[in-house]
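In this supplementary section we document a worked example of the pipeline. Step one takes a protein sequence of length 357 as its only input; no multiple sequence alignment statistics are reported here. Step two produces a three-dimensional model, which step three serialises into structure tokens for compact storage. The input and output of this example are shown verbatim.
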Amino acid sequence: MEKQEILRWLRTTGEDRLSRLWQMADQARRRHVGQDVHLRGLIEISNHCSRRCGYCGLNVHNSSIGRYRMTDDEIVACAHQASALGYGTVVMQAGEDPGIGKQWMHDLIRRIKRETDLAVTLSLGERPDEELCSWFDAGADRYLLRFETSRRSLYDSIHPPLAGTMSDRIALLRRLKLFGYEIGSGVMIGIPGQTYDDLATDILLFKELDLDMIGVGPFIPHQATPLGRPDQVAYAVPAEQVPNSEEMTYKVIALSRLLCLRANIPSTTALATINSESGRELGLSRGANVVMPNVTPGAYRALYEIYPSKACVDETAADFGSGLVRRIRSMGRTIGRGRGDSPNLSGRKSRTSEVLP
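The serialised model returned by step three reads:
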């Protein structure tokens, strides 16, 4: 699919016309990754963050939230709960927290691997190569790092670097692949200033990076951030500004599936936040094949407020998980068993072995 065709679909409106895109994406999903929906247990291990990102409620300047950092015993208990619920993976997510040390995380990963059969995914922001290699050696399988937008000027405006550093998430993703991780990335949809051309370039970059996982979601403004204050927001001209809409999110999921046929693509909590009735199900019917139920203890879950009014904050992990399974099965889909590794990873290993002497 060329850029002009991506742009055409991004600008297409009307369910009668878009139904063709939904159908193509669902057929591609069925053909290349099958009927399974893989469940990942999300553990939000810390809401401390050293960054000043203009869109995230965890940013260091937000003094209105209580900060927490889970203990290793609490995290391992969540991992055991995820395993008991039948999930094949835990995703440990945090703000960019300097309190998460290299050795502590190394030991935690080894303990989870020793006590469970779970795959371990990390989503801990930009970390030094030494730490990332140590965690892979401890048994971490995957790393999620959204690049948010591929346009450098827009990225810098919403994601200020730490003093004395320059952020280059695209380069870091390439290194993570070399280290041996399954790599996941994605973008926000409808960032103020994001154009249709920007978003089409982002989608093409998913394919160029050969991503194993692709996570996208709508920009949802948080009131305690610069982008949550209307007087500080700079939009693109109306004809070019991408809307942060539910429909646009489905378009990006569908186009990502058509370009990255064997990647794992989640139907995200953000979709459930903007459409509590059927957001996840619609994402699954338009190219997605992964859902990440939250197994974070309730005392912490409400404090991990990247954006406001996040879905499922008040539900227990067990209740939400059982309800989610019923809803997935009602769609005629099956619950994936085991780790749910990305089919793209096995394909990449095969392609690599073919060219090695």
